[in-house]
Design brief:
This protein is of the alpha/beta class. The chain has one domain: Metallo-dependent phosphatases (Purple Acid Phosphatase, chain A, domain 2, 4-Layer Sandwich), CATH 3.60.21. It is about 25% helix and about 20% strand. It has a 6-stranded mixed sheet, with no helix packed on it. The chain has a 5-stranded mixed sheet with strand order 3-2-1-12-13, with no helix packed on it. Strand 5, helix 4 and strand 6 form a beta-alpha-beta unit.
Length: about 290
């Protein structure tokens, strides 16, 4: 199964922008959608893992819905800390929330089961998973313990090494990490929030952070925890995950026109060409002087 992931779209009201006017987040999302629709092999679905809107108001969700309506494949949404749950439900096509109002749900329409978690809290940037939300997840995982499963959650479960991103800590996710260690059918965890492509392993499961379609966070491994979060105008990007067919594989796709052809000399081209594939992939004797 091929799963496309977009995250942290931060769509504004029409005509608006983010980063003090430097980023037209809606235009960058539209470009990502156009590129996604043009892939030679269409993914089975698109997951958008939170921070759909920049301020969480109604105009932004109406604008977001207009943009996402152009996606050619089914779309499933997770909530982020910039999102307002009431406004999301009013203007987007979402499942009914679980008791308590949390936007957690399962999608069972594909070979791989998709589970969406709500990691929002009263502290804007802090993730949270209360006992109620964890119990719900425990029950869902117990329903189909052998079925390949992907979990989407906005906040990442691990420290990134970028101090100002890690200042909030990940203690809130300890219960989830422990739960993951008990279920070997969870293939991967998809998240966003920090606007960079970063991967780690938590609870024995591959945890993936997708880059944003808006601005990216500066890769500064020497910044202090109190540093202001700095953004850079790296290309918007999205990811494609192959899941349920052997090892998980993730491709990161920058958004933009990078189709220029690089000329390769005939000599270099000959080095890659062979009429005999068996010869190309034959094991070589690395101790031989001709190897």
């Amino acid at each position: 199964m091929l799963i496309a992931q977009i995250t942290d779209t931060h769509v504004t009201s029409p005509g608006g922008s983010t980063c003090g006017g430097a980023v037209d987040s809606a235009a960058r999302l539209a470009a990502a959608i156009e590129q996604l629709n043009g892939l030679t092999v269409a993914p089975d679905c698109l997951l958008i893992t939170g921070d759909l809107a920049d301020q969480g108001n109604a105009d932004e969700y109406v604008h977001f819905a207009q943009l996402v309506a152009k996606v050619d494949i089914p779309v499933h949404l997770a909530i982020g800390n910039h999102d307002d749950p009431a406004a999301m439900r009013a203007h987007l096509d979402l499942p009914e929330p679980m008791p308590g109002g949390w936007l957690q749900y399962c999608v069972d329409d594909y070979p791989v089961r998709l589970i969406f978690l709500d990691s929002t809290s009263d502290v804007h940037h802090m993730g949270e998973l209360c006992d109620e939300r964890l119990t719900w997840l425990r029950d869902r995982l117990a329903e189909e313990p052998d079925r390949p499963t992907v979990i989407s959650i906005h906040h990442p479960l691990f420290d990134t090494g970028i101090a100002f991103l890690d200042a909030a800590g990940t203690d809130w996710a300890d219960g989830l990490v422990a739960l993951l260690a008990e279920h070997d059918n969870v293939e991967m965890i998809l998240s966003g929030h920090v606007h960079r492509s970063i991967q780690s392993v938590v609870g024995g499961v591959l945890a993936n952070i997708c880059p944003s379609t808006a601005q990216q966070t500066t890769l500064d491994l020497a910044a202090s925890p109190s540093a202001d979060a700095l953004f850079v105008l790296e290309p918007a990007a999205f990811q494609i995950h192959r899941v349920g067919e052997g090892p998980v594989v993730t491709h990161t796709m920058p958004v933009g026109d990078f189709t220029g052809v690089i000329e390769v000399s005939e000599e270099a081209r000959a080095g890659f060409a062979t009429k005999d594939p068996a010869e190309m992939f034959a094991k070589r004797d690395h101790h031989s002087p001709s190897a």
